[in-house]
Amino acid sequence: SAKDMKHRLGFLLQKSDSYDYSSSQGKREKISSSQRVSQEEVRKWADSLENLIHHDRGLAAFRAFLKSEYSEENIEFWVSCEDYKKTKSPAKLSPKARKIYDEFISVQATKEVNLDSCTREKTCHNMLEPTLSCFDEAQRKIFTLMEKDSYRRFLKSPYYLDLISPPGAGCGPENCKRSHTHTLDCNSNIISQCA
């Protein structure tokens, strides 16, 4: 069905005439050959969560999977922490740290991540004088949680399995509706386009 097709990420292995929605410009741009993902690279994603999330396309696929499970707050927190660690200006540390804390760690956070009370308290204490490492323990806990739980489900999901299957494999008349291509918009939403 069309709904099932929205859950497929075949866009990663499309031909060069496919389109991508650039997160920086929000305009359609052609995907260059270097942006497409090889089967070999996709297979490496199964080696470790780290391989997956350190690859732009792998991160996008994992994020889309987590969004389908209504648990994208974990990867959003992890990405926010990675971005935070790149902060150059000491003056920006405190406001950025507060934003991450309020969004993901605070008990009233809109996207609260699942942390034990000890880690939550330690992170709260770190907020008194934020450093580049003030979220390290919380980030490590969330990484471990994703690694043991959602990453394993991702590897068994169509989000990953469709990428490691050769195009058209297992394509019978009842399930072959691959005349649609898929791409991501700037918010990592899957957009279906008729080919």
3D architecture notes:
The structure is a single chain. With 195 residues, the protein is mainly alpha-helical. Helices cover 48% and strands 8% of the residues. It is built from 10 helices and 4 strands. The protein has a two-stranded antiparallel sheet with strand order 1-2. Strands 3-4 form a two-stranded antiparallel sheet. The protein is elongated and about 50 Å long. The two termini are 16 Å apart. Mean pLDDT is 76; it is low at 1-34 and 171-195.
Alpha carbon gyration radius: 19 Å
Sheet bearing the most strands, described? 2 strands, antiparallel
Number of helices: 10
* End-to-end Cα distance: 16 Å
Estimate the strand proportion.
Answer: 5-15%
| Estimated structural class | mainly alpha
**pLDDT < 50 runs, ≥5 residues:** 1-34, 171-195
What is the strand and helix layout of this fold?
Blueprint: H1 2-6, E1 19-21, E2 28-30, H2 39-44, H3 49-53, H4 56-68, H5 73-84, H6 90-105, H7 117-126, H8 136-148, H9 150-156, H10 158-164, E3 180-184, E4 190-194
Antiparallel strand pairs: 1-2, 3-4
Helix pairs in contact: 5-6, 5-8
Summarize the structure.
Helix content is 48%, strand content 8%.
Features of this protein?
single chain; mainly alpha; 48% helix; 195 residues; two-stranded antiparallel sheet; 10 helices
